[in-house]
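Sample pair:
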Amino acid sequence: MSDYNVKREIEILAIDLAKSSFYIYGANDKGQKVLTKKMTRNQLSGFVAKLPLCLIAMEACGSAHYWARKFQDYGHEVRLIAPQFVKPFVKSNKNDSLDAEAICEAVQRPNMRFVSIKTEEQLVDQSIHRVRSQLVKSRTAQVNQIRGLLLEHGITIGRGRANVNKKLVRLLDEGDSSQHIPESMKELISGLQAHLNYLDEQIAEYENMIKARACQDDRAVLLQTIPGFGPITATAFMSHIGHIASFKNGRELAAFLGLVPRQHSTGGKSTLLGISKRGDVYLRTLLIHGARSRLRTIAGKKDPVSLWLSRLISRRGHNIAAVALANKMARTAFALLNTGEIYNDNPVCSEC
């Protein structure tokens, strides 16, 4: 069979992605194999450009969103599958050929879940958040290193960046005579202080960038009407979830973020454990931190959410209440993005 006829038979093309070596698996409308081939980066792009319109499936891994947008520009239908949903279809040992075949099998399942394809702007937002997150981790490590080094000289500093900054000002700038350390050690700590200040400036710069981008996105502005949602959480939320239409309801979105109970049920007996912690750790952490900030403001309030949170805290504790509120925030975000309405703490019944 000629290469042209093979291309015409391909209805599903599964691609196992890599940096420079790609393996493709083509199947006809009955799911039967018609082509397996290894290709380079340039060969893959040219092959797909000349291929009759078909369904292209890939794992949602590095560079997947780039290739998905590129193949969509050629007119193909593209679907991305999370790697954990492809793994059950891998036969026997693992190699590129079997991975491509497993992707082809997975995409044909009627109940398969797919990852929404992200735009370039969403990927830019994600990149900014990742750089900022790494800088925050570096700053925390720098603070702890300074505390540890000074402890060896009998100088104790409480936890937190603010305590370290105050102590360094007294030690280096004001020359606190009650705390004696060698001059060479002061020079070392002074260098670490300069680096800590540099990290603060970098983090502030990226946060300003995030706030500016949040102001330009109407959906991020809408999310910020929800208590507990700030510019950082709103932009991280929109860049991670992709298209809100990918989710059937708010509970599915909350499950996607790992904010629903993990099940271990059998024999008709339901057993619910702690939250599943699936999805993106960074976004889930931001939502829970936002929920904690809101919990600090509920004292004395009489709105339904505050009263519910007060009862939940007294019954289950502060931490469980924070996670429950984060779950509610995710569901509320789903509702707002679908309707375009602004959040209202005290909704008025239309029948009243």
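Residues 348-352 have pLDDT under 50 and may be disordered.
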